[in-house]
Amino acid sequence: MADHSEHQQQQQQQQGAAAGSAPSLKLVNRLHESRSPYNGIVNVNAIELAKEHNRLIFVSIGYSACHWCHVMEKESFMSTEVASILNESFIPVKVDREERPDIDDVYMNYVQAITGSGGWPLNVFLTPNLEPVFGGTYWPGPQSSSHSQWGAEDPIGFVDILEKLRDVWQTQQARCLDSAKEITKQLREFAEEGTHSQQQGSKEGGEDLEIELFEEAFQHFASRYDPVYGGFGRAPKFPTPANLSFLIRLGMYPTAVSDIVGQDDCARATAMVVTTLLNIARGGIRDHIGHGVARYSVTVDWLLPHFEKMLYDQAQLLDVYVDAFRATHEPEFLGAVYDLVSYLTTEPIQAANGGFYSSEDADSLPTANETEKREGAFYVWTMKELKQVLGQRDAGVCARHWGVLADGNIAPQNDPHDEFMNQNVLSIKVTPSKLAKEFGLSEEEVIRIIKTGKQKLREYRERTRVRPDLDDKIIVSWNGLAIGALAKASLLLDEVDKVKAQQCRDSAQKAVQFIKDNLFETSNGQLWRIYRDGSRGNTPGFADDYAFLTYGLIAMYEATFDDSYLQFAEQLQQHLNKHFRAPGAEPGTSAGYYTTSSEAIPGEPGPLLRLKSGTDSATPSINGIIARNLVRLGSLLEDDSYRQLARQTCNTFSVEMMQHPFLFVNLLDAIVGLELGVKNVTGVLAADTQDALRERIRAEAGPAASTSTTTVAMVDIRASSQWLQTRNPLFKDLKPGTPPKNFLLVCETGSCRVVDL
């Protein structure tokens, strides 16, 4: 109730400030119309007002779980001084980047170009034609308490920036407009990523891409690797699961890849992933009392996170922990798999309707009686609390295990606002075997104490603390990643825990069904991006929604061999091809896929530019995932048109990939499948022994099934109505023998062979 009241109070303050604006223009707060808990809303009305009253548009882009977005909201957007300037001199607009990633992408490119960095909140001033004039990220508001983190010299404040932009627009408008047009021209040229290749004149588009690029990509990651704590570069440290997946896959490809990269370097890549994932699993970035992993670590040792938990991180990390366990059989990785599965398949992240919510905030109220939110308040502990909840002896054991200190374990330089005084972020510091010797207990007793202590602390936390706010948007693209990760995890868990494996498949299936029932138009194959608070939003799906959901559906097919998933996946791919594919330089060719559809969103402005996403970041490359999907569909359906589209999509980015292959790790995976060919292992079911056949399919495919070089399928030739048998020409003439026996059909490099069972 306190959070809800605070939200209402904020809207009332904004509405009151708007009411006091200049009499020639009365701004109306329309945030309540948004489907987003971040209150994002942008429409043609704002543009029309800007043109009519000749004002700059101020756009603040963020998301619900963003810590600094909340700081700026409190310091600036709830300030009557700021509201007065904004409402009298600008057209202010808030945008949820998760609902409108197309808008975020364009202006993030701009801010990164002019400042050298980016982040959220992302704040930009635009002309009435949406061309950028000035931008940045967080700016301190009036009476900001955040100045201390910036050192001795305070940065320029938000009010100063507003006044400067107001004055410049009034006195130097022509210069502003000319500058904005020039900037937009440069952005448009930058947005031609993927068209450089077309200019080479090749029908397929660009230079030939070869798997030799893997060696250069590996060397880049090796040069930035932290051998002490794992991960890459210095603080802040992000898990970067796409890069970890690339490295762990090096040891899963056919030998042609290891021959190029080198056996020793492939082993080194695996070791880099192992060290990184172990440190993440043991670090403060992981919630050791509940479940899940925070978005990134402020410190190089993974101890102090920014505490927000994002759905896309959990999904991608689950995927890479599954691969890492298969490669190493490290027990801690299996524990991380269980932890992430538990987070994804239970409240608060999985909704009762089956969809997956987006994120949990970093900030929360320390107690129900307080009104001031603090970062990490839900997750940190004092030594006094441990003793109070666990008792003297058990608290001593657990404190040593999780690195809890009487004065707190956060260094002062990492706590500029004194939010963590005497507080501890839990991370695994001492193993049970060492604790057993230290406390004179058996290792079994130590494990029992830790397990019981974790349960008691969880119950205490749930009972006495206010949980962080939940961003309860259901976003199709992120749901697709979660569906795919759970499907993949189910195959691993089938070998050790069939009940948990079925839970993974059930949760993924519920999410698929929810999307199909609520966010998919059967009449035309269109997806809607957002569902929240009982109804869908009005934003049609973007390319990532189609790409990531298709990825998840293919994974579900390969986990269940239920044709309906594959049929749905192809339907989505066909919609992508029709509405998002960029035409190539030659007739009938493709130049990758735009982020946005060719059809405008009714009643809302389109983005300034149509971009193509080729690089991997916090979420996978859209074109990278599309290319991988196309490779798999080409193999599973024996459809060469998909292979050609995959090759053209990869070659679209060839110039950029030749220069910086490490930025395109998902596209690199697709290239291996295209260059070496895909091995398809199909189980042909003619007799009633499905389980044994499934096991033989998995065994024949091996770990390469996690790469674009191997796909798996199963056809039931006892019934002629199966969709895949009619869709794939290789399966049309398969018939049971006499007597009927199951067998494998293994197809690769243009030929097929039968493997008798």
TrEMBL record:
InterPro entries: 6-hairpin_glycosidase_sf, 6hp_glycosidase-like_sf, Ssp411, Ssp411-like_TRX, Thioredoxin-like_sf
Gene Ontology biological-process entries: carbohydrate metabolic process
Pfam families according to UniProt: Thioredox_DsbH (PF03190)
A GO molecular-function descriptor: catalytic activity
Domain Spermatogenesis-associated protein 20-like TRX: 45-187
Location of region: Disordered: 1-22
CDD domains, A to Z: SSP411
Segments passing through the bilayer: none
Annotated PANTHER family: SPERMATOGENESIS-ASSOCIATED PROTEIN 20 (PTHR42899:SF1)
Protein name (Swiss-Prot/TrEMBL): Spermatogenesis-associated protein 20-like TRX domain-containing protein
